[in-house]
């Protein structure tokens, strides 16, 4: 068994997400991540993995 538990993926319904590492003393500066065609994005600071829900409604565009 791996002693370091993997962070669970965070399901989101928008292709742009903000991550601050959870805030508090262990947080980090807020970064905005863009979920691309892979369907996920990983925070470069804390390695949280954000996954776009396949059932998410498309956001408005022009």
Question: What can be said about the biggest beta sheet?
Answer: 3 strands, mixed
Query: Residue share in helices?
Result: under 10%
Basic shape: elongated
Structural class: mainly beta
Our count of helices gives 0
Estimate the mean pLDDT confidence: 85
Unreliable stretches covering 5 or more consecutive residues: none
Question: What's the total count of β strands?
Answer: 5
How far the N terminus sits from the C terminus, by CA atoms, comes to: 49 Å
How much of the polypeptide forms β-strand, as a percent range? 25-35%
Strand order of the largest sheet: 1-5-4
Helix/strand order: EEEEE
Rounded Rg: 13 Å
Give the gist of this structure.
This protein has 62 residues and is mainly beta. Helix content is 0%, strand content 29%.
Would you kindly provide a written description of the structure presented here, covering whatever features stand out?
The chain has 62 residues and is mostly beta strands. The protein has a domain of 37 residues. Helix content is 0%, strand content 29%. The strands form 2 sheets. The chain has a 3-stranded mixed beta sheet with strand order 1-5-4, with no helix packed on it. The chain is elongated, with a radius of gyration of 13 Å. The chain starts with 9 loop residues before the first strand and ends in a 10-residue tail after the last strand. 5% of the residues are buried.
Question: What descriptive keywords fit this protein?
Answer:
three-stranded mixed β-sheet, elongated, 0% helix, 29% strand, two-stranded antiparallel sheet, 62 residues, mainly beta
